Amino acid sequence: MADLLAKGEKPEYLFWVGCAGAFDDRYRKVAGAFARILTCLDVSYAVLGKEETCTGDPARRAGNEMLFQMQAMQNIELFKSYDIRKILTICPHCYNTFKNEYPDLGGSYEVISYLEFLDQAITEGKLNPDPSVFGETRVTYHDPCYLGRMNNIYDEPRKILNKMTRNVVEMERNRSFALCCGAGGGQYFKEAEKGEKEIYMERTEEALRTDPQIIATACPFCMTMITDGLKYKNKEEEVKNLDVVEMIIQAISPIQH
Questions:
Q1: Are 90 and 152 contained in the same domain?
Q2: Half-sphere exposure of 36 (CA within 13 A, CB side)
Q3: CA–CA gap between residue 15 and residue 21 (Å, rounded)
Q4: 168, 140 Cβ separation under 8 angstroms
Q5: Which residues have a Cβ under 8 Å from the Cβ of 134 and sit 6 or more positions away?
Q6: pTM of the prediction?
Q7: What is the span of the domain harbouring residue 107?
Q8: CB of 197 within 8 A of CB of 214?
Q9: What is the structure's pLDDT at 154?
């Protein structure tokens, strides 16, 4: 953003990378895949780079309201300085915070989940996944809480997956009845509470009952928890855990890369 401003240019979108997209080795691949698609589509976008900080979501979920508001106000002032109006996110938690919580503090933006963006690009024919790449590959999709129950984004990921494989299977609990991966609400950052089974294990077992070849996810927390579950079950060699955008990258032609 700073480099473009120095040139007198203003991109249409801010691509908010998020903490996981910046620091988590696994989710950096997801951020890179989405950036490649944005570049391929010649989208006018920029990132904040070193100016990007946390949205404050983990602080609020953990009960530190003052820290959340400090982080939020810092971001809102930064967005004002760049006249940012449209934000693309790859993290459901960032998406929910920008869309539903920042307006209370004076930060109102058009917030777009990458799944919404990708679905629209495919619908408009700008992206054309090759269905032969995955063919009959058996895929089940895990609904992230902050996309599904919090923001009603259920159809877009399924429409995308159905463009790439003829074998999408639903878990027993899906859409608004989907079970959390176990990391939401600040749980990712604290020790497990007493109980008979970890939530991520319950959800991974439910996914494995569909006999999938790929478990598709759309959230950095969900990806971490499902991956841990697959490792615990010694299934990481048999079943892949891929983000939806990683599947798109594999399915579009080299010309589109």
A1: no
A2: 17
A3: 11
A4: yes
A5: 164, 165, 214, 247, 250, 251
A6: 0.94
A7: 2-117
A8: no
A9: 98
Q: What would the two tokens of residue 251 be?
A: 């399915």
Residue closest to 45 by CA, chosen among 86, 94, 91, 95: 86
Q: Please state, in angstroms and rounded to a whole number, the distance separating the CA atoms of residues 110 and 84.
A: 9
Helix (H, G, I), strand (E, B) or coil at 68: helix
Note whether 191 and 86 are same-domain residues.
no
Structure confidence by residue, pLDDT tens digits, 133-176? 999 999 999 999 999 999 999 999 999 999 999 999 999 999 99
Given phi > 0 = left and psi -120 to 50 = alpha, else beta, which region is 143?
beta
Pairing of strands 86-89, 139-141: unpaired
Q: Is residue 124 part of a domain?
A: no
Last residue in a domain, options 69, 84, 117: 117
Residues 105 and 148 in one domain: no
Residues 66 and 146 placed together within one structural domain of the fold: no
Token couple for 110: 């058009």
